Each structure stands twice: as structure tokens, then as C-alpha cells.
Amino acid sequence: MTQAPPRPRSPFEAPFGAIPLFRRVALIGIGLIGSSMARAIRAQGLATEIVCAARSAETRAAALGLGLVESSYEDPAEAASGADLVVLCSPVGTYGAIAQAIGKVLEPGAIVSDVGSVKGAVVRDVGPHIPAGVHFVPAHPIAGTEESGPASGFAELFQNRWCILTPPEGADPGAVERLSALWLAMGARVDVMDAEHHDLVLAITSHVPHLIAYNIVGTASDLEQVTQSEVVKYSAGGFRDFTRIAASDPTMWRDIFLNNRDAVLEMLGRFSEDLTALQRAIRWGDGDTLFNLFTRTRAIRRGIVEAGQETPAPDFGRRKA
Ligand code: NAP
Questions:
Q1: Residue 229, number of CB atoms within 10 A of its CB
Q2: What's 1's DSSP letter?
Q3: Domain limits of the chain?
């Protein structure tokens, strides 16, 4: 264990007198999402103690140096020991092994949650390692940027964003309520749905768009007739937006596609059919089909702005200057 020296009150600190929802919160992984949680939990005084586990000594030192946690551990089980809330904040592909490692130290009454971008695989990989008397409530905050690491997080990341909870059947309502209270206090809005439905919705709203971005940027970089320097020099707004998405963390996104395979393939099938229809419209000069679709899609963008999930000038979830 590495412990932080006593520190002066930081700007993240809760107002004096705030009542914590949890005694010890253990964040397993402290990158963009884990560190944003640490900052928001501190700012709102939602825990008496925040600790973390991370793979590299560099990340563990950064978490301490930034004043995000009281202690940091290499071993997730040491971080989870004595915690009444453990949140897995590492790539989804690591969850099974982490759950196996922490299973034996979890205390009765503790809540285990996560922030993973897929949910069916999390229930499959983590569920079997949760001992009786411990509550398992998976969650997914629909908030993020293309950046990674403990320095990239910020306390306002979850403000006004949705956090979807996917409690398995028979989950303890009190535990769901407590986790919900945490996300609400961090500024999020909370919805509850089953894991399968979550994975289908997110496949079309997040996973397939990322795949398209990775693919289009990959295609552009493989072209023979257009040089890479021309792609960079003449990158228009549309391509630039794709490159932002395609700059997202490779490990995280590899794990998402491997763990939401069925829903992504289902949505990709629909996408390919619609793309073929557009291809046909262009080939046959069918302007009406193109115009009608583009009018419909413009309205969807307006709907997202009106729902407060985007501003007319795109902010992509970044912190305000
Ligand atoms: P990140 O910035 O890359 O941070 C990942 C963290 O996990 C790092 O602290 C890393 O430690 C740690 N880690 C990796 N492997 C580990 C292991 N085996 N044991 C313990 N810690 C390990 O990632 P992120 O963007 O915060 O994403 C974390 C999770 O949030 C993912 O499951 C992702 O699906 C989900 N999520 C992400 C977004 C987003 O937009 N980024 C949005 C919603 C949900 P080291 O630095 O030492 O490797």
C-alpha cells in the first residue's frame, strides 16, 4: 500500500458537515472514469475514505499526487478490503479476474458495482464471484471523452448525463437505491433497465458509431491515391470528428467489441442494409431519398440538443474552459 501524506483541504473537498453515503469507496482502476468519480465523490462529500487499485506504479502515484485517493494499491483485493462500495473502473476484459481476486475479501452488506460500457458480459463475468450477502449492482455512466488516465478526469463529467443501472433479477432494492443516490449526488440522472436491453441500445448509440469511426479513419490512412499528409492537411469537419472518436482508448474499445458481440453484429447488419440503400440512391440519382433521410437525421440532432445531452456548439463532454 502507498499512503498519501496529510494534505491541506483541496478544491475537490466536500463542504464541512456533508453526510457521506459510504464509509470506504474502492475504485479498481483510476483512469478517466475512476478519477472523475473520485473527484465528484470528494467534491460532494459522499465517502469518508476513497482508495484505488491500478496496474502501474505510475498511475498509482498519479492518483495519490493528484489528491484523488487516501491510499493506492497494486492488489485490488487490498483496496476492496473493508470497503462498503467497490467500483470496477478498468477495461471490461479485466473484470472477471478482478472479481475473482476481490471475492474473498468482500464484506457482507458491501455493494459491488462497475462503470463498464457493456453489461451482459459484466453480469456473466463478475456475478459468479460475488459472495452471498454482498450486493451486485452493475452501472454504466453515459459520459466520457476520448482521453484516458487519472489526470484526464474532472468532477463535472457526469453532470446531467445518464447513468444506467442494470441490477440482476432479485437484486436488493436498498442497494440499488444507495447506488442510485451516489450517481444522483454526482450530478447524473439515473435509469434502470436490464443488461440485455442496455447492450442493444448502446450498440447503436455508441459501439457501432465508434466502429464506423475506426473504420473510416483506417480506410483513409490506407488509401493509395490520397497521401496521409493530404488526409491530415485537408481534413474537413466531418473527418476530424471521426478522428476524435477513433482516438479513443484501444484496450477499452477492443474489450467492448469482444464483449458486446451479438448486439453489435445485429446493429451492424441493419446499418449495412441501410448503407446499401444509400449507395443505391446515389447510384440512381435518387435525391429525394437522400434529402428525406438527411432531414430526418437533422431532427434527431435537434432532439439531442433539446434533451440537454449536447450543446449547439459540440462540446463532446469535455470540461468547460
Ligand atoms: P482509462 O482512463 O484507460 O483507465 C483505466 C484504468 O484501469 C487505469 O487506471 C488502469 O491502470 C486500470 N487497469 C487496467 N487494467 C487493470 C487491471 N487488470 N487491474 C486493475 N486496474 C487496471 O479507462 P476509462 O476511460 O476510465 O474506462 C474505464 C471503464 O469505464 C471501462 O470499462 C469503460 O468501458 C468504461 N467507460 C468508459 C467511458 C469513456 O468514455 N472513457 C465512458 C463510460 C464508461 P493503469 O493506468 O495502471 O494501466
A1: 8
A2: -
A3: 2-193, 197-285
Q: Which amino acid appears at position 260 of this protein?
A: N
Give CA separation, 282 vs 238, 275, 277, 285, in Å. 19, 11, 9, 5
pTM of the model: 0.90
Q: Distance from the CA of 30 to the center of ligand 1, in angstroms?
A: 7
**Distance from the alpha carbon of residue 57 to the mean position of ligand 1, in angstroms:** 15
What CATH fold (topology level) applies to the domain 2-193? Rossmann fold (3.40.50)
Residue found by looking up cell 453515503 in the block: 21
Q: Give the strand order in the sheet containing 111-114.
A: 2-3, 71-73, 47-53, 22-28, 85-88, 111-114, 135-136
Query: In ligand 1, which atom is closest to the CA atom of 118?
Result: 34
The pLDDT tens digits of the residues spanning 139-177 come to 999 999 989 999 999 999 999 999 999 999 999 999 999
Substitution site in 27, 30, 32 for ligand 1 pocket (most atoms within 8 Å of beta carbon): 32
Fold of 197-285: 6-phosphogluconate dehydrogenase C-terminal fold (1.10.3660)
pLDDT band of residue 235 (cuts 50, 70, 90) is confident
Task: Report helix, strand or coil for 88.
Answer: strand
- pLDDT exceeding 70 applies to what percent of the chain? 93
Alpha carbon nearest to ligand 1 atom 1, residue: 31
Residue nearest to atom 4 of ligand 1 (CA): 31
Residues in the chain, how many?
Answer: 321
Nearest residue (CA) to ligand 1, atom 46: 59
pLDDT at 273: 97
Q: Identify the weakest region by mean pLDDT among 14-23, 150-159, 266-275.
A: 14-23
pLDDT of 136 higher than 90: yes
**Short-list 24, 104, 96, 61, CA closest to 255:** 96
pLDDT top residue among 16 and 157: 157
